[in-house]
Amino acid sequence: MSRYSIVSLARNALNYHKGWEEAWRSPEPQPEYDVVIIGAGGHGLATAYYLAKEQGVTNVAVLEKGWLGGGNTGRNTTIIRSNYLQPESIALYELARSLYETLSQELNFNIMFSPRGLLNLCLTEHEVRVFRRIVEANRIAGLDVRFLDAAQVKQKVPIINNSRAARYPLLGALYQPRGGTARHDAVAWGYARAADALGVDIIQNCAVTGIERRRDAVSAVETVKGKIKTKKVAVVAAGHTSVVMDMAGVRMPIESVALQAFVSEPVKPMLDVVVMAGAVHGYVSQSDKGELVIGGGADAYNNYSQRGSPPALEHTAAALLELFPCFSRMRMLRQWGGIVDMSPDRSPIMSETDVKGLYVNCGWGTGGFKAIPGSGFVFADTIANERPHPIAEPFGINRFAAGRIVDESTAAAVAH
Q: Out of 293-307, 321-335, 349-363, 370-384, which region has the weakest mean confidence (pLDDT)?
């Protein structure tokens, strides 16, 4: 760092950053927009960015009831992978993973993407059979996904318990070398700054209170900052999607539950891959700060809580201690919860609706972060061209009535 940079940084720190240019504007809403996106999380911001960049639609407002990225985008465990089972899912998640590879360069914002590799552990014979099937499905799709035996897993993760006397003996793992993590806040900030630079209005603290319909088409949204006219509304509100869609009279086939996670105190580097274990409901990675980022299964009952509960934390900690006994003396640093939206087949919904001009993007469960770039890209194309993008087409809302489900209940692992 140059002497000028150091002096400039010190000067701005002492004057509380007065005079620093904002990363994005804080405009008041205009009376009318071509598209209004409800939800300024990763998916909503990515949709706005690709609408402007790829589709040339810049008269766009992104409405957020709280602060940008304050929902699930800032409350997840940042895992990125594409090793799903169904070809429809593989196409969607691999598009997202591949976009993550160059996203820092595209947005000119460091999202701290780390393709460190990801292991889905096999702890039962059933998982061995299922994961071998997933490996073949991924190879057919052209992905680099491999099956490792227990010895190869131990070589990659020396601290793992591979004793044959373990409660859940290690039998192998599904390995995706280019899976990994990214900085969740940075993804939201990068998309927000880039979308703002293209003319998109991001309006925070602007809760939506109603969606106006005329002749079976949307005509406006009501907000705490007044009415905004529009002919296209895209609802991207994660766990609150069913509440928002109810304002337009559309019932959604999703349920909302809490998912909890926590981080340990920072320690020296000890885990350089992401490890997931569906059989015991636990997954872990180590952040750049040295914290162990830990999560487990979603709550078993519907709720909108963003707080933790001791039983869920105890269950997740117990699962991981079976696999990593060396974690037993570590202290928990902090804990949080997020509201996730689960669809019946554990696959997302990216779709037009029976209400003209009303679009919805939801049902990502606990795997929404990994899909942000791909989701935004294909959803923007769907909205702009008023027909499903080919990758989004299998994930229409009417697939449940037609029986064309995309079942990912197994490959979704811990609910990812």
A: 293-307
User: Cα–Cα distance between 73 and 226 in angstroms, integer?
Assistant: 27
Burial profile 356-369: b = 16 or more Cβ within 10 angstroms, e = fewer: bbbbbbbbbbbbbb
Cα separation, 282 vs 240, in Å, equals 25
Q: Are residues 226 and 311 in the same domain?
A: no
Measure the CA–CA gap between 274 and 74, rounded to whole angstroms: 19
Q: Tokens at residue 69, please? A: 């990225």
- Residue 49 lies inside a defined structural domain of this protein: yes
Task: Measure the CA–CA gap between 159 and 161, rounded to whole angstroms.
Answer: 7
Distance CA 270, CA 158 (A): 9
- Whether 38 is in a domain gets the answer yes
Q: Are residues 263 and 412 in the same domain?
A: no
d(CA 164, CA 161): 9
Q: Are residues 286 and 163 part of one domain?
A: yes
Mean pLDDT is lowest, of 8-12, 29-33, 51-55, 238-242, for 8-12
Question: What's the rounded Cα separation, in Å, for the pair 321 and 166?
Answer: 11
Determine which of 3-7, 146-150, 245-249, 278-282 has the lowest per-residue pLDDT on average.
3-7
For the beta sheet containing 255-264, the strands, ordered from the edge strand earlier in sequence to the opposite edge, are 146-148, 172-176, 118-122, 274-277, 282-286, 292-298, 255-264, 332-342
Residue 334 CA to residue 59 CA, distance in Å, equals 40
Q: Tell me the torsion sign for CA atoms 356, 41, 307, 348.
A: positive
Domain extent, residue 140, equals 115-178+255-342
Helix (H, G, I), strand (E, B) or coil at 259: strand
At 191 the three-state DSSP class reads: helix
Whole-prediction pTM: 0.94
Residue 52, SS3? helix
| Alpha-carbon span 207 to 311, nearest angstrom | 33
Nearest C-alpha neighbor of 109 from the set 190, 203, 174:
190
Q: Are 136 and 186 in a shared domain?
A: no
**Residue 4, in any domain of the structure:** no
Residues 294 and 263: their CA atoms lie apart, in Å, by: 6
Q: Where are the beta strands (DSSP E) in 9-143?
A: 35-38, 60-63, 79-80, 118-122
Question: Do 29 and 201 form a contact (C-beta atoms < 8 A)?
Answer: yes
3-class secondary structure, 369: helix
CB atoms near residue 407 (< 10 Å)? 14
Instruction: Give the span between the Cα atoms of 375 and 390, in whole angstroms.
Output: 12
